Amino acid sequence: MPEIDINGKKFEVDGDGFLQKPEIWNEEVAILFANSDGTGELNEKHWAVVNYIRSHWLENDMAPMVRNICKNTGLRLREIYQLFPLGPARGACRIAGLPKPDGCV
Amino acid sequence: MRAKLSDKHQKALNFFDSKLNGKFITHLNSCVHCGLCGESCHYYLATKDERFMPARKVDLVASIYRRYHTFAGRFLPKLVGARDLNDETIEEMVDVLFGACTMCGRCSVHCSIGVDVPFLVRTARSMLVEMDLVPKGLQSTVDAAINTGNNMGIPRNEFVDTLEWLEEDLQMEVEDDNAEIPRDQKGKKIMYTLNPREPKFFPLSISAMAKIYYAAKESWTISTNTYDVTNYSYYSGDNEGARELTDRLCKEMKNLDAETLVLAECGHGSRAIRWEGPNWVEKEYPFKVITVIEVIADYIRSGRIKLDPSKNTQLITLHDPCNLVRAGGIIEEQRFILKNAVENFIEMTPNRENNYCCGGGGGQLAMSEYNERRVESGRIKADQIRATGAKIVATPCHNCIDQLMGLNSDYKLGVEIMTIGEIVANALILGVE
């Protein structure tokens, strides 16, 4: 199983760098992932997205539609792409500690 | 002599045998080992790993044929490089045929005798389907499509909610309360499809197409039950799944009484539905199937939409999706569109049917197991993009878009990746008759 090492912390991940054990996620993991994938420092808007995605996943076992991310955070669609240059899936969902969603993402 | 096969292996071999016809046997026996294919394959070029040479992939499949269907292979297998269908052979098949091939077909174009390598690779993948050996992420994407109606498992109410939201947005943008994204309307000319990643994560491409249809005053609808343009069973080699997904679209076309099935910007989906589909459902479609690229080009040609290229001033290059361009022959339409929609266009080199695969095809984006290779093989495409100096890469394929977004970040290309529809929508002049 691949491992990534960020600042001396090791994480078991899948080949795409998504956490293998989503339950070990915490805010520190999010900060480390965001710093290493080009997202950079997480501001209030980032956290609103990450926390919403996380809670949606805990409740529904799937990543939310981007429509719901916008509705629940009050952010505009284009802002989401600016906040997470890798997009909602490989960017935001990964930082929120979700497994990789299926499909062309 | 031949060792007894396990039930699983025998099942796979039975499948292999059932596929043996003139075409299959000819392609299995024709490779002359000239090696031209190596230099044509982005996996081999990026890694120089000989196992990834297309000729080696062909030989892997052919060695099974020789073992069970030739005299020398039955009695002197080592002498003719014939291989038993055993765990070792199968492990190599999974690793190389799933993990190091996008079935892009560039090797076949360069092959001195035209061996259809993707056809052999996909047939071998079908053998692996028989043994339940499809890599996990690819299989779960197929399962999601079969079990939920779309490959991301989007619940119908959330899909409808997203379309309603986009419709409100469209009305504001075009300043017309009657502008719509029609849902489940019967008797329309076009039934439009989507890649589920659009409603789920990247809906701007839906808005763009809705705006283009609005400007063209098109009669169109989206089915909220059956809209998925992808067919991951094409990638995995699962012919029964591929047939089922195709059949659902046929039924929905009938149900909505639509004239033309229009395929969203999706390379493998276009190939699967338009060109492979009739073979799976074993009949000609009773409706017309066309890609949205051809629809847009036709709008421009006939004057149904007017474009202002000065709305797109940045230098734009074009990536040719393998399934649409090399396999499907949709080559000039996207160029015609871009030349009408942007001020500065530059081709990447090589291009058209000689273009390199981005590295995301063949189901690679769904197979985390081979992520490292996918990114490494994408270096060839990244170098091509960088050499153009373009700021925007347009491509009519959502699968390619995702790979290109990844390459953009991994190779620090500093470009923006867009669909053809988004670029056209950007240049639309509304309110002209």
Quick structural gist:
The complex is a heterodimer of chains A (105) and B (433). Chain A is mainly α and 105 residues long.
Describe the structure.
The complex is a heterodimer of chains A (105) and B (433). With 105 residues, chain A is mainly alpha-helical. Chain A has one domain (3-95): DsrC protein, C-terminal domain (Arc Repressor Mutant, subunit A), CATH 1.10.10. Chain A contains 5 helices and 2 strands, in the order E-E-H-H-H-H-H. In chain A, strands 1-2 form a two-stranded antiparallel sheet. Chain A is globular and about 35 Å long. The mean pLDDT of chain A is 92. Chain B folds into 3 domains: 7-133, Fumarate Reductase Iron-sulfur Protein, Chain B, domain 2 (Orthogonal Bundle); 139-300, no CATH class; 305-427, Rossmann fold (3-Layer(aba) Sandwich), CATH 3.40.50. Chain B has helices at 7-19, 22-29, 42-47, 54-69, 71-75, 87-98, 106-110, 117-130, 136-148, 156-174, 197-200, 204-215, 232-236, 239-255, 267-281, 292-302, 322-325, 333-341, 371-377, 379-388, 398-410, 420-427; strands at 190-192, 220-222, 260-263, 288-291, 316-318, 345-346, 392-394, 416-418. In chain B, the strands form 2 sheets. A 4-stranded parallel β-sheet of chain B has the order 2-1-3-4. A 4-stranded parallel β-sheet of chain B has the order 6-5-7-8, sandwiched between helices. In chain B, helix 1 (7-19) runs antiparallel to helix 8, helix 14 crosses helix 15 and helix 18 (333-341) packs parallel to helix 22 (420-427). The radius of gyration of chain B is 22 Å and the shape is globular. The A-B interface holds A 14-18, 37-38, 62-63, 65-68, 71, 77-78, 85-90, 100-105 and B 137, 140-141, 144, 151-154, 158, 161-162, 165, 195-197, 199-204, 230, 365-372, 398-399, 401-402, 405-406, 409.
